[in-house]
Every structure is written in C-alpha cells, then in structure tokens.
Amino acid sequence: MMQRYVVVDLETTGNSPKKGDRIIQFAGVVIENDQIVDEYSTFIHPGQEISLFIEELTGISNETVKNAPDFEDVAENIARLIEGACFVAHNVLFDLSFLQEELVRCGFEPFYGSTLDTVELAKILKPTSDGYKLHQLAKEENLDHSRPHQADSDAYATALLLLELKKKLMNLPVMTLKQLYRLSYSLQSEVSELIDACIASKLAKAEVHSPDLITYRGLAFKKAEQEGDHKDTGAKFPLGNEEKIAMLQNAFPAFEARSGQLDMMNLIHNSFETSQDAIIEAGTGIGKSIGYLLPAVYFAKKHQKPVVVSTYTLQLQDQLLQNEVPKLKKILPFTFQAVLLKGRSNYLSLAKFERALREKEDNYETALTKMQILVWLTETVTGDKDELNLTSGGQLFWNRLQSDGLTYAGLKQPWLELDFFERAKKTAAKADIIITNHSFLMTDLLTEDALIPKKGYLVLDEAHHLEQAASKQLGSRLNYISVKTILNRLGTSDQKQLLYKLDRMLLNNGLTDGKSSHELDQKLSDFSYEFEQLFYYLSNQAEKLSRSVSPKRLSFKIDDGRWGKAILVAERLVDLLGYIITELEKRLALLLNNESPLGKNSLFHLNDIEVLLGHLQDTRDSLHEFFIKPHEENIYWLDYTNAAPQHGVTLTVQPIAGSKRLWDSYFGRQKSVVMTSATLVVKDSFKYFKEQLGLENEPMQTASFPSPFPYKKLVKVLVPNDLPEINCLSVEEFSETAANHIIAAAQAAKGRMMVLFTSHEMLRATYHSVKDCGVLDEFTLFAQGISGGSRMRLLRNFQNFEKAVLFGTTSLWEGVDIPGEDLSCLIIVRLPFSPPDEPVTAAKCQLLEKQGRNPFSEYSLPEALLRFRQGFGRLIRTPEDKGILVILDRRIITAKYGTEFQKAIPKVDWHQGTISEMAEMIEEWI
C-alpha cells in the first residue's frame, strides 16, 4: 500500500500549550508516491496578544491574524488532513504534541499514526552537516525556503527536504540499510518504516550497489582514490620575482603582486636549502599561506623529502587543504600530494566499530551515532571524526570507537588494509606536504615510533601559539567526569561491565587465584566515594574564593593552608589506586600467560581493560604530582565553573617554560624550522617571541612583511571621552557604563558588530545589561559561553543575521575571519592584559622577578600588545573592507604605556568624543 505523508509546521505564541500558548499558523503539505499532491495552510486567531519577539521571529503580527479563524473553526479540516497519514515535521515531537493538545481541547481524537522526524532523519543521512536547523539544511540542498519561520514556507521546505532525504536513503546499499533498520528501533520516530520500505523497493529491483563503494565484513565503504605517482619533475624554484608573478598571474588573472609575499617565498626557500631557521611576521593580506606553501612544495619535490606544515587551529588546517592547496595545484607546472595528518584518536577504528555494531544494548545516542557512522562510511575517505557532527552523547560514544591502538594483532589483522589511521600513515609517507596541528606534531615528536621525520623541514604557522601549545602538551589535566567514566566502564564484579567480564574470563579458563573479588569491589567503591568527596571539597573551596558565576582559574599550591583536607584525601586515593592497579595487572597477567588461546571477544575486553588501566595509572600520577609531590618548574591550577558542584572542577599542570624543553629536545634537531604568523613583532622586535621560546641565543633569520592594506582609508579608531577610567569602577559599574556605549554603537552600525572582552565575568555582566534594558530587542545578540554552541557555530550564526552583535572572549580575539560587511564595527572593552593573579601569568612574572627583571615591561605589556594586534586584525580581512574600532578603555590615551598600543597597529586616524559624537561618526563612516 502506498504511504501518504503529511508534512506539518506550526507557528505558535510560545512553547507550551499547557501554559496557554496557542497556534497562530498551521500548514500541511501532502506527499504521495514521492510527489507533492496537496497543500493546506491557514492563519489562526490565538485569542491572545502576539508578543514582539514572536512577531519579529515569524513576521506574523496581531494585525495578520485579526480576521483569521479560531482553531475550533479549522480543527476538523486539520484532523481530516492528517488522518491515516504518516505525520512528518522538523522536530516532530513539538509540532505533534502541540497539535494533539489543541485537537483534544476541541473535542477531536488525538493522532495515533506513525511519525517521522526530519531532524532525526537528517542527522542520520547527512552526518557531516554543519547543523540541522531547517534553514541550514534547505541552503545545503538548494531547496526553496523563501520565508523561514512562516509555517507554509517551513512545511513546504520540510516536504522538499524529506524527498531529498528519501533519495539519499534509496542510494545506500542494501547492506547498510539492513544495519540501519536494526538500529532504527531505538529512535524517537518511525524511521524504521521508511527504511523497511526502501529495502523492499531495492530488493524488488535487485539493485547493485554503486561502483564507488566496496563491501567488507558486512560494511560498505567509499572506495579510496588511488594516488598517482608524484615523482620529481626536475622543476626548479623560480628565483626571479618576474617569473613568480607570471606564474601567479597565469593562474589568477586578478592577482596583484605583493613584494612581501615574493620576498617571503625567497627567504623560506633559502632557509630550507641552507638548513637554517627563520622567524617571519606576515601581515594580513600578504598571502602568507601561498607564501610558504610554494617554496615548500618546490623544495619537497627537488629533494624528495616532505615538508611538514603545522597550524594551531583546525580551521586553518582545513583552509590550507580545502582552499590553498587547490590554488597551488593550479599555479604549479607539476603535480604534488598534500595530506592532512591528525592524532590517532581522530580516526575511527573499524575493528572497534564492527564490534560495537554487534552489541545489542543501544540507547538513543549510541544507536543514532552508529547510524550516522554507517552512512558516513559510504562517504568518507579519511575516517576523521572532525567531519562528523555528533551529539554530546555521540562524542562520548566515539571514545570507545577511536583508533587508540589495539594491542593484539588478531584484532587488527582483518582491518589493516582498510584501517583509516594506517591509511593516513601510508599516505603521509608518500606525501610532499604533510599538514598537521601543533598538538599532534608535539605528541608525535615525543614518541619513539614517530610519523614525522625527526630531522626534517617544518613550517609552523600561527607560531605565536607555540609556547602555549608546547606547555599544554607537556602538561596534563584531570577532571571529575573523565575519571567517573573510567570507573563506570570498569564497574564492579556484579555490574556486567569490564571487571565482571574479566572475572568471567578467568573463571572460564580455570584461572581463579582463590581470592574473591569482594575486596577489589570494596576498594573501587571506596575510591569512587573518596574521589567524589575530593571534588566536592575542591568545588566548595573554589566557590568561596571566586564568588562569581563566571569561570575562574585559581592557582593551586600544596603549601597553601586552604587545600589541607584535599591533600589528605588525595593521599588515600593514591594508595587505593595502587591496590586497584596491582590487582588488575595480576588478573591480566594470569590470562595473558595462560596457554589456552583467547577468543576475539575476550581479546577486545582485555584491550579495553588495558586502555582503562593506562588511564588509572595516569590518574594516580596526576593526583600524586598535584597534591603530594609537585615539581618546582611546573604551574598548578584549578579551573572552576559553578555549573554543577564537582563537575565544574578541572585540575591542570604544565611547565612554566615548556617550549624551551621542546625546542632543545626536538625542534632544535630539525634541519630547518620556519615560524610564521601575522603577529610576532613587539615594538619592532622579535625579542619577546624569541624569549618565550628560549631562543635568545639561537641563530635565526628574521623578517617582517607588513600588511599592504591602506588602513588609513579603511579604519577609524574612536575612544569615548565620557567614560570613567576602567580601574576606578567595579566590574558591575563599568559593565553598566560600557553597555550604554555598546548600545549606541550597535544602533549606529545597525549590528554587524563584535565586542571583545578579556574576562567572562565582564562579558556576562555587560551582555545582561545590554539585553535587560530592551533597547536592542530588534537585534540578535550572541554571547560566548551564554548563547551555547562552539566558536565556529557562534560565528556562522552571527553572519546569518543582519542585525547581530557578538560578545566574545579570548578565542575570538584571533583566528576569526569575517570579511566584508558582516563585521563593520569592532569594540575592544578593555586592553587585553592578563589578570595578574591568573596562574600562568603569576608564575611567569615570579620567575622574571627572581631573575631581577621587570615582569610588566618584559611579559605583561608585550603579551597584551600582541593580543591587541590580533584583536585589531579581526576588523579588516580584505582591501575592500571598511570598519570602525571603538576602544572603551581610556588607558590607551591616559596611561604612559598607551602610546605603545597606538603604535602597535598600523597608522590610522584616532578620534575622541562623547557617546553621541561616537554614534554619529560610526553612522557616517559605515
């Protein structure tokens, strides 16, 4: 029998019919035989006022529904429309439950048929989408969606989306569909019925799967492209600038020669050829990426040695591979291979996934994640987790699937040929350019079995983060959730987790040592309880010290009397862990030394226990160092947020000067290291950067190529003169004053504005002052740490709204690329000095004091100047951009060091004025 679908969308006065909210628009689109055959929509009078927010969101006003029918008048039409159909909606639980309430209220039977949620379906069939809002999916699929948040337009777009998703489902091989069908019973809507119909249709037609796919052990995969042979072509690096310009102009007719970029290419080529190190600052607009990639490729081809390019952010890593490498392939007269290499945990272990598919006890999150991965396997050639858009539960489940190494050959063997990490290693071994990130690079350099050449050629982009990345890599973190997850996975002898399975394996092999598991269970229970007590105590102490809703970072020293109780608990925890680890090692040894061969399931369990054992050993070492025997050269601190008592605490340790250790041990041994960034110079010198890395006495080539942009024509800087000095007011008082200037600037700039803060506390206070006053109700406000979502999602949402203001902290000061009119006004609320009590800052300043040096002039000020330059760099990304920078911290004018900040950025016009003069100038300039 042919299935009839009715795709429904509602607009309502609010989210809860039980609290009196009502429908203001209903729309239904009927699909039969994969064709839209009917549509029905109507405005509905809600019998109450429509709020300004709903009017702004939907475009539906009180005037729109003034003469519309009541729900009672159209209820029969709606009930008849959906009768006998599959009820489809984008977030079906909301639309159906709202409609059910209204139908029952009017005396009609509720809907009892099947439901289909296009959000759920899209998550499964489009596992790599940026997001699953209707407007995002419609844009990706090029669907007609002209009036978002109006029910008729939303319902029609959802109907088109359903048809596209059905096509995607039909294109999957039957093997994958059968796996999806088995898992679909854990979902919230009847996706199983749709999959079942697709399987029946494909079997009836006896369809063969696509030639782009291969199948193995019950799974379907996208066939990996065979890489061609990239032998040396004998091409010589074009030393003359005219030759380079001609090459670039052939590929890009609009190319404008920039002397800085050409000189950068020559300097890097020379550094590689002469095995020298170099530090290069390349301002915005120089073309830094092509500036280092072009000489790197020529060198790699000539010498048949790979050049490794490392970045700090994943965003730049992807940009290099997706944008810059294809450009370079257009430019060069020969072929080359560039690959992306990440840490092992970024890749899917097919052996672990095959095993996970056999497990029956799926909750909603794991079933959904498995379904996403099954579809993704037909699309991905990398197996890289960053391609996937996983739920938070899916992220946790991934930890059981990641390629973190399988100890036993029998588990790896069947999948070696297809294993994603093994494939990435093989591809990297043949590549000319290996693109990676600082974190993986440093982890790899520290391992014996390194993938990256120990004596090779490196380009370190975003090099101003090197010191931070090195210290982080040599440090460690400990938090409540990660340890509790380990304990839950291990379980006790009667919880049917790993310890139970270990006991069963010992019993089945006749290997019991006569000891009962009761004592180990008791020690695990004691450890769990004591660990919980430790983190409750830490969070209580942190709350007393911070008294703030914002995240706090508190320095931790064991000789500080405030943490005495924590040290006593930690000592007991270390002893308990010692016992637990020893007992687990004994049990593992009994099994591994047994002559009887173990089955594959047993080996998987043993592998999981060994991984957990490693985590327990790391936990013991971290507790011992943090609370019992800290090292003088390390910094210890506690990050705290009061989101949940013990969940909000993370303990961190890192060396004060980690980069020096890494340079001396690893980077210094490379043939040539080129470090580059848009911001490395402080007061026309590389001295600060070199000191941070401990390179003061190392011979280095250095060069600075300033941005070619005519900033004087593109930027004005405004400093309000009717604001009090920031140090004279409390955070709350200054936030309230700053809020008035932010509101005036937003109105003058008509949104398209970013506001940068140095602390979450001030951001939160200012954001709420702006929001609560109601003047910017017509604007969409996004705030880091408040609005939710990742940094990239915040930025995408900010760019999707015309009248938008984005409030950001540390991570938005740099690495954010918003060209054109999407960002026209930038406000820096406070000069970006790190708080003196911030643990890393305090430790570095104390070290400088011990050396008889001035911590402010040699560390705090240079660091703030660099961050200020990074913040300024957000405003102008192309020569066509135009913008206003507003600085609310008057110290840039009044303090002695203020002129240093003024000199730190390119020459622009500076103005002072009142709040109204500021607004007038913004309006006029933009």
Give a structural overview.
The structure is a single chain. By secondary structure, this protein is an alpha/beta fold. It folds into five domains: about 5-210, Nucleotidyltransferase, domain 5; about 260-335 and about 430-475 and about 665-705, Rossmann fold, CATH 3.40.50; about 350-415, no CATH class; about 475-645, no CATH class; about 710-925, P-loop containing nucleotide triphosphate hydrolases (Rossmann fold). About 45% of the residues lie in helices and about 15% in strands. The protein is built from 35 helices and 25 strands. The strands form five sheets. Strands 10-11-9-12-17-8-18 form a seven-stranded parallel beta sheet, sandwiched between helices. It has a seven-stranded parallel beta sheet with strand order 21-22-20-23-24-19-25, with helices on both faces. It has a five-stranded mixed beta sheet with strand order 3-2-1-4-5, with helices on both faces. Helix 7 (about 175-185) packs antiparallel against helix 14.
